[in-house]
Predict the structure.
Amino acid sequence: YDLLLYWINMSSPEKPIFGDCFRAEYENPNADYVIFAEHLGGDKGILFLHGALHLYFANGEIKKHCWSRTHRPLIELIREGLENKKYPLFVAEGLAEKKLEQINSNAYLAYCLGKLGRITNRLVVFGNTLGNSDRHIAEVIADNLDLKELYVGIFGDLSSPTNQETFATCRMIAERRDSINRNFKKPKLLQISFYESNSVNIWN
């Protein structure tokens, strides 16, 4: 599923729609890959907070497999990369503390998490339950005082264990923001709302 967004971004008539911080390597501009080489600044972009299958670490750099440079399917490039010990960059640790440790040890992942902490006004969460294993993400959201509205997708039965965990995390976010607000004369309010995930035609 982490390749779908990449595919949509590249299949637009005015492609790509969004930047992703990867650019051609200066010393090897015609390489089959691109490298993590720049920041988005104030522009919108695509970032993978926990990595993705088409990203990998090699020779001290974060690189990205590219269909546009090879005209070969990403799955084929990823499989070939695995055979050549170019393992995908993704966070596989179970506990939030371990995930954060892995994120902070990688320049790209640390940048992605930092970017989440600088989003302004509103954020929509889709396809992530914000469970206990993603507490590090929830804490960054709570600590982002420029974030004023948070919309969290809920799927299925409201009383399901997964949804109850999501509600609990959102309560934690609200409580953490309230705690931070005690240091301000004018509170930095965060409105949290829920929506049904299956009501969103995300791929249309």
